[in-house]
Amino acid sequence: MAKYSGIERGKSLSVDSIEAALDSKMNLAGDEEISGEKIFAVSPVIPEKAEEAGDNPTVIAAEAQVYKMENTVIGNINTLESSWRESVERLEDSIKEQIDEIISNHKTNVDDLLKDKVSLTGDEEISGTKTFTTSPLAPEKVTPVTAENKTVLATEAQVYKTIMCW
After folding, report:
1. Span 49-61, pLDDT tens digits
2. 144-145-146-150 Cα dihedral, nearest 10 degrees
3. For labelling, which of 77, 127, 142, 159 has a CA lying 20 to 30 Å from the CA of 92?
4. Dist CA 74 CA 68 (whole Å)
């Protein structure tokens, strides 16, 4: 197998065959276009770029540049995540404050609305004249109706029972 195309062992060399052979090889310096698939037995050594690795699909980057870029990206992601978490926490705190304020205002409004109302349970003093459209129901007394209990309500049945028993 010939090392250079156009040059064969034992044949005389011409200037044209030498130029053709050299044209099929890559120069050590300068820009050249290389076509075809090239398979390297070992990874080629490339110079380190002065600028950071970019998104150019045709430029080779050293592992160190890729690693540095990866660390930069991961660092940016971590910074963004931290910033995002802080923003979410501030938003949660703000929402909680707003909800607490709404509940507090609502409770105040409800308390204001209920302050002049009679509760269903517990002891309370009721003042003023209260007129019932229907007769209220009272629990049956176990003690007899007496003249001394002027402020205690009695049911009709208790009054009737008291009158009928005399």
Report:
1. 666 656 666 566 6
2. 140
3. 77
4. 10
